[in-house]
Each structure stands twice: as structure tokens, then as C-alpha cells.
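Page 42, continued from yesterday. The earlier attempt failed because a stray header line got pasted into the input along with the sequence. Redoing it now with the clean sequence only.
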Amino acid sequence: MLLIAFGHSGDLEDLDEAIHRHRQAMELAEPEDPAFAGFLSNLGGAHRIRFEQSGKVEDLAEAVLLSRRAADCAPADSRLLRGVLGNLGHATQTNFEAGGAVQDISEAVDTLGKALAITPIGHSERPDALSNYGGALLARFRLTAESADLELGIEALREAVELAPDRHVERANHLSNLGIALNTRFRSVGEVADLEAAIAFGEQAVEATPENHPGLPGYLSNVALSLTERFRRSGTTADLDAAISYGERAVSATQPDHSDRPRYLSNLAGALQTRFWRTGAEADLEAAVRANAEAARRAAADHPDRGLLLSNHGMSLEARYGLTGDLRDLDDAVELLGQAADVTPVGHPDRAGFISNLGGVLRSRFTATGDRRDLESAIEAGQQAVAASPADQPSRTAVLANLGISLGARFRATGHGREEAVNAFEATLKLTSGAPSTRIRAARSATELLAESEPARGAELLAAAVELLPTVAERWLRRSDQQHELGELSGLAGDAAALLLGCSGSVPPALPVLERALVVLESGRAVLLGQALENRTNLTTLRQTHPRMADRFVQLTDVLDSDVPAPPTAAGQASTRVGTLGASRPFDRHRAALDLAELIDQVRSLDGFADFLRQPVAEDLIKEARSGPVVLFNVSRYGSDAIAVTENGVNRIHLKGLDTESLNARINAFYAALATVGDPQAARTERVQAQRDVSAVLEWLWDVVTEPVLMSLGLDSPPSPDSPMPRVWWLPGGILGLLPLHAAGYHRDQQDSRTVLDRAISSYAPSIRSLRYARRAERAVSTVDRRSLVVAMPVTPGLPNGAPLSKAAAEADWVSARLPSPHTFIATAPPDGRAGTDDPTKEKVLVALEQSAIVHFACHGITDRMDPSRSRLLLSDHRSAPLTVASLARINLDSADLAYLSACSTAANTNTELMDEAIQLTSAFQLAGFRHVIGTLWEIDDAVAEQAARSFYDILGNESGDLAIPRSAEALHRTVHMLRDRYRAAPSLWAAYVHSGA
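This time it went through. C-alpha cells are written below.
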């Protein structure tokens, strides 16, 4: 009873008293008594439990001795034997984990296997026997890496969970053990479903355990490990925050002298240090260093996890060196990591990682001091780590990459060993079980070494890496996490395409090379938009033949389109996916993403659906040039090109005068001039000069970028007055999208026709897939039967003096009179600064938006530099409920035609790391379903905005009262042409307007 009381309370006095009572019982019993073996076994079990709490080795030695004596004298055919064997198996396994030899764990497996064999099927103790046996197999797998042990262990642990009733006293322990086993298999094999299931089982174990239960800290720490593992693979910050929360609970629930406290501290430190790498929060790093130091200090010399504790402490000190530059941290890190490798037996599965970490820290010290001996030692350590790392384990990815970095450092220092470094990076890329981001970075590192001597080989590596980008931004991640992961890999597709195109030197690339470069750019840019467009794919055919699958697709993509958690699954609808065992749990993004991938595979197996949601081939992309040329630009450190797609195929225009340095200089000059133009404190002469600076950049843009393209397309002069103006779609990609390609040219002289505006009607698109989506079949509904939405913000709460737009209300009234069935919101200016009852709020606007085919906004807009998905239109409640890019993500309108955003910076994305992703308000409205979107690249003059709107709708109208929406690009072109002729000396007034879409 005292052991049971300890199990509930964790009070060590209960445990000490239990040991005293068990010893009294043993001493009073006769050796011939059939119960004597039980007294020995119970006493041994109590000593083992006290060792687990205190770490005193004499308790463990006594536990093993007593358990073996009990097994020797237990009757062979008694019920008592099951418990005796179970305690002996526990004791020998614990002895192994405390630093014992391989024979200890083999004895534990054999003993617990015998205990299981004599426990009848259906017996109440069978779940415990299965869990004990499975745990021993898992422990032996960690030593030997024998996959048969891992598979048998998972099978036994799964059966234990399935057999244990919900109220079974050990069910939580069985759940946690199964979670550990599945996490182990994930780290060994890389199957994401195992990691998902590990987290699910671990969380169920925590939920089923009372707060004061002695097993709770271990369950908490195990879940924290799995969540940290998932973050490292995918990058979702919610996982990392949850891991830290679980880890802190585990540490706070553990006594200072508990033998497991060092492990819990180290696990918590790992999560804290990982969050430091993600956020740069110095407090997290300092907390990680303190936790690791305490863990290493408290662990006894023979602690089974001592190598891990030392390695983790060393890695946190290296991280702090990177922050402070204190070489003492680096020296201490080298010492600790060397100790970690020394105390870990050869053949231990963690040893390769410790040696690899040592190599990385030695390389850091070489970088700091220039001592070549450290670099050679780093390479030697890296080679040892690779040799000790199993060929098919996910952890090998980081080990290979670390060796590649050290070899690359030696090549840069000496000019020797390039091929060795490249080979290590190539092997990293090819290891399919590894983290995609590590594999992509390896491909990029290899290419940096190959670019000058073997560009074709580098191009192949980067092209393979581009195919991995969607797995970096997996669907279940929150938008901010997806953006972070892709931002870390910005420019990858551009580098791949540049090398592909540049491999042939002065010889024009062959058609297959051109088409491949086109597909690489299309696949590697606007990845998030591409995923969202897939979610809005045309399901008509699927719905006609398999309506339930189509409905399920919509249900799952709705969950993934949302950036908030979905509601719990209804009772009776729980998933049968591994990890739930029929239990109802929240229908989260992780499971939705797995279910969607499974559904897509099922659809592709159907007749006629083999290409469902697959990446487009060049032939499909070329078809989108039927209405006019589509031009993709690529500016890379490896060269700059335009790829012109026409009905006749693909052509490359090498832009030899364009490079990243000169482009950045022009962008900085351009936006500095715009800031001066908009500065009310600037002198008139300064604003005049600023307009000239804007014109100078537009002229440079013509000379270097747009004229070579137009000449290649045969647009070498303006069309005759009786000829239709040709159309061109620009896909700038990257930072080139910050400049107005449509406004490039020499505009200051009325007689000079060297302008894009005089040669073609310009439109933009984030990708060819988005263009195809904008051109999807329209529903046959007359304009006069459609509704429209008009929103105006003459004043904006929360901005200085309300940031008045004096013409916004008049613009809204004029536009409303020309749109069909308008729903008009015009903000007022109440004395308290709050939104009026009829003012435009996010909720009202979103409701009206879903009912409207045409929308017009006359308001301020803000581009968020750090998180483009938070760029927003400023409505009356923008401070509490902003209308952001992200909030538009779930809208999907079948018959939306035109969105006119007469606002500030609606087509701009100034986060250079995410330029490839085209995350801004115009693309958000296009994704919502609008075929034509009018936006602006920078803040526009209020009076000019009203002129532009009036001109646009006048041109778009016809005598019958309809609006010729398909002519939106032409209407904007003619409007900008008119404004240009009116304000030639002030290009900032008219060059901001862009048309995006069909």
C-alpha cells in the first residue's frame, strides 16, 4: 500500500517506509516459504524505484541482487513468477541504462519476454507485460540499431495500449512508451506519420495523468522532445512554444535531487536554444546555458545520459560565443564535446552526433583564430561521425552536411579538396529521410563550390532542391512559419534557372533547357500562392464523378486555408489514423495535411485523374501565352535573364547590364526619391529633383531591362493608330518587382516613344499558374445582375489627424453611381474616434465581399515589411480587426471580376527575403477569385486617385450600362497614359498603378 501511495503522491517518505516494511517481511519469512520469492522481488522493486528517484547506485545494485535471488527461488509454475520476472527485467534494464553492459539489456529482453509468454491472453496484467517487453526491445534498439527490435517493440507497445482499459492505472505509461518508440522510429526512418502519432500518444499520456503523479514529469518531457523534433523538421513556432511549456512543467515538477532532473533540464534547454536560433531572443539562450550547466553539474559521472548532457551544454556555449565573441565559451565547448564523445561507448547511436558537434565547434574556433590544426581536427571528427552514422538514418543528414561545411572551409583556405566537400553535400541532398531544409542548404552550398568550374552540375543540384520547397512550407504550418522557412531559402529557384541558362555560355540554350528553366522558376516561386491555388482547383470534373471526394477536398482545404485552429471533430467522427486509437481529438492542421495528401493520392489513382494537382509541365505553361507574351525575369548572382513565353515557344533574353548590386542601388535611389516627393517638409526644389531621380531610374529600367525584351518580341516601335495595342504580362519575381516595369522609359520628352507605355498594355502576375487561375471559365452572368461593394475612408481612426483623404468620399459616390447594385460604406469621423455604426469594418466588408463581383476601395493601405501576410487595408476597426492578406486567404469567389484598390502600396511587398512569394494585397484579391485587380506600388496622391478612378470606369463603361470587365487592363493603360501626358515631369503621380490578372 505504501508503494501505491508513493505512486500517487511521489512522497519519498512513503517509499522509504515501504522498503523498511518489505525488508521486515523478507527477514521474517522462511526461505522455503512459497511467498519468500515475492518478498525478495518486492523489496528489489522498491530499491529500483528509489534509485530512479535518487540516483544512488547502491539501491540499484541491491535491486539487481534481490531480483535475481527472487527469480532463482520462485516456483516455476506459480502466478508469482510473472511478477518476479517482471521485476528482474526492470532491474537489469535499469542497470543497463545506468551504464551497464550489453548483456544487461539482453538479459532484460529475455526475462521480460518470458514474463510475457506466461501471461495469458486476456489477463489483466498482459498490457503491463507487453509494455515492459516493448520498452526493453526499444532500449536494446538504441544500442544495437537492430530494426527488428524496434518493430517488435512498437508492436508490443501498441498492443499494450489497445488492451489497457481507459482507467487502467498504467495506461498513461503505456501511451508515453509508445510515443517514445514512434519518435525513435521517426528519427531512424524519417516517416512523418510516426512523429505525428508520437505527439498524439504523448499528449494523451499527459492528459491522463494527475498533476502530482511521479510519472508526469517524464511524460511531459517526452512530449516536449517530440514537439521540438517536429519544429526542427517543419518550423512551426507553436510547436516550439508548446515544447518549452511542457519542458518547464517537467522541470518544475521534479525534485532537485531526482536522478531524471538533468535529462529534463537538458531537454528544456534544447528547446530554448532552438527558439533562440529562430527568434534571436538572448534571454532564451541564457536560460538554455543555465539549464544545461545545471544538468551537467547534477549528473553523476556514471549517469546514462552524461554524454548527451555534456554535448548539449557544449552546443549552448558555442551559441553564446556567436553572440558575445568570448573565446572562453568556445574553448569550454570544445572540452565538453570532447568529453561527451569520450564517455559514450563506440556503437552508441548518439555518438556520431556528439562527434559531429565537436567537429562543428572546432571549425568555429578555426574561423575565430585561424589555427589550421582546429580545421583538420574538425574534418577528422566529421569523417568519424559519418563513419559511425547509419546510412539510412535521418540524423545522418546533419552529420554529412556538417562534414561538407568543414571540407568546404578547407577548400576555401587551401584551394584543395573541393570534390570531397561537394560529395558530402550531394550525399546530404540525396538522403530522402532527412530534413528538407538541411538538404536544400546542402545543395546550395555545393553549388557555391561548383558555380565557376562545373555550373551544369550545380544547376542540377539546385533544380533538385527546388522540388523540395513545397515540403519546407508544408501545408499544416501557420502562414508566418511558412514565410519564415521560405524566406530562409529565398532566391533558390532563380539561382537554379540562372545556372541552367548560363551553362551553354555564348551559345543560345537548347529548347529543353529553356523549358526546364521555365518550369524551375514557376515551381520555385510563389510556392504559398501555388498551394493556395491548388486548394481552389476546378473540382467540376471530380464532383461529377466522385462527389464525396470533392466535398472532402473542400473540407480539408478550408481547414488549411484558415490560420486559426479548427474546431474539434464531432463525436463519432474520430479519425482512425495511427496515433488516435479511435479517441476523439482536435481536427488539427497536422492531421488535415496528412489526410489531404492521402486524398490527393487516392484521386490520382482514379481513371482520368493521374495529373490531379501535379506541377505543370512546360507545354501547359506555354499555352497561357495565347493572349500575349508572358515574360519572366530572373536576377541572380549567377546571371540575369528574361524568359519570354509566346505561342511559338520559349526564348531567353540575356540581360547583361542587370545585376543584383546595380538593381539594389536603383531601388534604393527610387524609393528615396519617392520619400522626398511625399515629404511635406521638403523644399520645392528638392521635390522637383526627386521627380527627376524617379525618371532617371525609369530610363535605366528601359535601357537595361524592358527594351531588350520588347525588341526580342518584335515590339520595336509603337503600333499604328488603327492597330490594337499588344499585351504583355510581366512576372518580375524577386526584388525587380519593386520597380514599375510598365512605366519604364523616357517620358520627359513628348516626342520620345522609347517607353513601355507606348509599345504595349502591361499586366502583372505572380506566376503563370495564377494567370491560368484568373482566366478560368467565367459564370455567365450579366454585369447588371451582379452586386458591387464600394468602401471609402475619408478619415482613418488611429492615424495622425485621421490621415484625411479629402477626395475619397466623392470618389466613392461617383463610382457607386456607375456600378451595379452597389453596397457602399463611407466612414464618418465620430468625436470619440471610434467606428460609427455604418462605418466599414472588417466583418461587414468580408460579408459584402463574398456577395460582390466588383469591389472598389478608396482608403489607406499598409505594407508590413516584416510579415507581408499582415499587409492590410485600413478600415474603421483596423486597430482591433485588420483586413489583412491572411484574412482574405479563405475567401473563394466563383464569379468575382474586378477589385480596384485605390489605396497605398497595395501591390508592394518590401520584404526582400519573401519577394519570390508575391505576398501582397493585389495577389490576395486575385487568390480570392478576382480576375482583374488594380493596385498601386506606393502611396498615391488623393486628387490623382480620384481622376484615375473616374477615367478608368468611364473607359470601361459602354452605352448599355454594362462594364466591359475583360477590358480592365486596357482601361487602366489608357488611364495611366492620360495621366502620364498630363504629369510627365511627375512620374510618381501615375507610375504606381498596376493591373494584375487576366
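Notes: The chain has a mean pLDDT of 81.
Reminder to self: strip header lines before submitting.
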